[in-house]
Amino acid sequence: MSEDIFKKITSHAKEYGFIFPSSEIYDGLSAVYDYGPNGVQLKNNIKEYWWKAMVQIHENIVGIDAAIFMHPKVWKASGHVDAFHDPMIDNKDSKKRYRADNLIEGYIEKLQQKIEKEVKKASKRFGENFDKEKFLSESPRVQKYKNQIREIENRLNNALEKQDLKALKELIDELEITDPVSGTRNWTEVKYFNLMFDTRMGATSESASTVYLRPETAQGIFVNFNNVLKTSRVKIPFGIAQIGKAFRNEIIARQFIFRMREFEQMEMQFFVRPGQEMKWFEHWKNKRLQWHLALGFDKNFYRFHDHEQLAHYANAATDIEFKFPFGFKELEGIHSRTDFDLKMHEQYSGKKLRYFDPETQETYIPYVIETSIGLDRMFLAVLSASYQIEKLDDGSERIVLKLPPVLAPNKVAILPLVKKDGLKELATEIFDNLKWEYQTVYDDKDAIGRRYRRQDAIGTPFCITVDHQTKDDQTVTLRYRDSMKQERVPVERLSEIIKDKLHFKHLLQSSH
Ligand code: GAP
């Protein structure tokens, strides 16, 4: 996959009604996107997969849907008012703003590319006898780059940990990092920039107070801890799941729907006995990876990235990274958040947020394992893993979205070969029968070959073609998206044949 493919995927998403830039007739709004007719179906199906995998099949996980606006103290308690910020730096010539740590990481990336170049050169020189591991550990030039990387990483991590903005600026100056736009080193000082959006709530400007658009859904779960405990029969260990919008004033908002200012999160907080959090952390790490793998994409598209530098509230954290067209990037976070959040909310609200454990006869603040995935990011992962350009036997090309059938926006397309001779009526009858069970589309425009291509491009797993023979023997052609195989099947057996592939049950069973 490459940047070039990524461009193709983004234009495909627009052309086929998956994703549109927000307010496009006004030239769009940066890093905000709308989902079109096919996009909303695919997104809802991903949500459904997550929700069922969390809430439906786990007796000890319940769901909630908290409001986006929350009491402003919530964000004081969670640390977002004081510490949810990025270190930013401006270039005075281009007037562009960058995340200081990203600029330094970009520099490290370039050193890594230099190592790869050395490897390529050496492998050409030594041919079959080339021993990559030996070369990497012995080449003086590679060692030099590796040492440089180590030193920069250490200094970067130190500066971030100590919130030492001066040290970040010094590193940028020392490494002579230039602005990719202006090419100059005319930088401002590094400053913190809070990522929360705020607005005013109240009738008059005097009485109005500042409220925030939530930057994560997790806090809605923590503040409802007592409510859920009182109203459901959950016993520790148990989870609370939620899907909802979150907002962040991201400075560097690029890469399409990878980093947005308004996005959706699917989060689950799993409450456990103190001291058992590492066991559950491992449990959820594996469970969440399995959820991804069950979709059937290449398993090499996924990897764990354990955090070395932990947030102040965490005692373990890992990302599930996905191989996006622009490289491996975070798709989901799994964090062991200790008792930090509940403890802070106790402190700020003055209310106890504790659990009486009937087994141990103890009362304690539970520890929390969080799984947190961006729905839009998951959408992009599914879209990019499904997008394929295939060369066909006749030399032509087809673009096909090989979506897992359960996630596909439309499951079945009903296509009468021609509109006349009663075929339209027959096709409509089949449509009217199947629509109760499956998201079905009817299409009688254009030649049949073009209609197949259109369904391939939006990932419809099954096409049903109604032709003159249907009138005689009540059979239709069933075409499979991935193999393009066609078979003649009786109309009355259609539902039964496709049912198995379209049921969440099998996907959920392999995700479990
Ligand atoms: N409650 C924990 C939390 O919010 P996070 O790592 O900041 O953790 C979790 O975010 C997930 O939310 C990320 O792994 C990513 O999938 C998604 N996410 C975060 N910021 C995003 C953005 N600006 N646009 C799209 N998705 C985002």
How would you characterize this protein structure?
- The chain contains 18 helices and 23 strands.
- It has about 500 residues and is an alpha+beta fold.
- The chain folds into 3 domains: about 35-75 and about 200-385, Bira Bifunctional Protein, Domain 2 (BirA Bifunctional Protein, domain 2, 2-Layer Sandwich); about 85-195, 2-Layer Sandwich (Herpes Virus-1); about 400-510, Anticodon-binding domain (Rossmann fold), CATH 3.40.50.800.
- Helix 14 links the parallel strand 19 (about 410-415) and strand 20 (about 440).
- Glycyl-adenosine-5'-phosphate binds next to strand 10, strand 13, strand 16 and helix 13.
Highest-level CATH class of the largest domain: Alpha Beta
Percent of residues in helical segments? 25-40%
For the biggest sheet, the summary is: 7 strands, mixed
What is the overall shape? Answer: globular
**CATH fold title of the largest domain:** BirA Bifunctional Protein, domain 2
Task: Give average pLDDT, whole number.
Answer: 95
Q: What integer value in Å does the Rg equal?
A: 27 Å
Strand arrangement, major sheet: 3-9-10-16-13-12-11
Structural class: alpha+beta
Number of domains: 3
Can you list the ligands bound to this structure? glycyl-adenosine-5'-phosphate
Q: What is the end-to-end distance?
A: 29 Å
Total strands: the figure is 23
Poorly predicted runs of 5 or more residues = none
Strand content: 15-25%
Which homologous superfamily in CATH is the superfamily of the largest domain? Bira Bifunctional Protein, Domain 2
Architecture of the largest domain, CATH level 2? Answer: 2-Layer Sandwich
Number of helices: 18
